[in-house]
Amino acid sequence: xxxxxxxxxxxxxxxxxVTISCSGGSTNIGSNSVSWYQxxxxxxxxxxxxxxxxxxxxxxDRFSGSKSGTSASxxxxxxxSEDEADxxxxxxxxxxxxxxxxxxxGTKLTVL
Amino acid sequence: QLQLQESGPxxxxxSETLSLTCTVSGGSITNTNxxxxxxxxxxxxxxxxxxxxxYRGNTYxxxxxxxxxxxxxxxxxxxxxxxxxxxxxxxxAVYSCAKGFSGSSSFDFxxxxxxxxxxx
Lengths: 112, 120
Known about the structure:
The complex is a heterodimer.
Chain A: E1 9-12, E2 18-23, E3 34-39, E4 46-49, E5 63-68, E6 71-76, E7 85-95, E8 98-103, E9 107-111
Parallel strand pairs in A: 1-9
Antiparallel strand pairs in A: 2-6, 3-4, 3-7, 5-6, 7-8, 7-9
Chain B: E1 3-7, E2 11-12, E3 18-25, E4 34-41, E5 48-54, E6 59-61, E7 69-74, E8 79-84, E9 93-101, E10 106-110, E11 114-118
Parallel strand pairs in B: 2-11
Antiparallel strand pairs in B: 1-3, 3-8, 4-5, 4-9, 5-6, 7-8, 9-10, 9-11
């Protein structure tokens, strides 16, 4: 059971906008920036969003990130078939156990 | 372009030690703002951070694995390594190495991953 939770699945039709949520706590999302990763089937994860709302070069502006309190969100607009993948959020966690990275459980996005 | 490549045995016996090495090419492992991490993914499951190391040797480990994990860095070879002892079938996973960047608090480059199976 991860300390950062995501819905296991999400779906949308081509052209639609979908949002994937990531819920954490005061020791992780509430006090640190969030990153998002896209994992296409059989491939390594790819950085989509860093520092909560920044896109690396080469990532289309259809992908955007935001945060409010202890929750973060990834929005994908103009959904395309190639967006069908698993999406993970992550953040540093400053708990009593020490400093550690935590990943959300992942959300499988289906493009209908 | 930075590249990371994992190497090591694909099969480890229960109770033994899993050892993997990540070779970094196209860049230096000694950049001050970079850190290096191991992440694993059991078949059909999500990502789990194992631990990270900075080039000066500072390490951070997943509390749930801390008693069994050691990550080290070899700046002369531009490599960092993972050792996980007393493995069980639950440690069967794709193990990936990745570069983290302090300025962005993210893992911005990943290796392709290597499947390690724990079985007798």
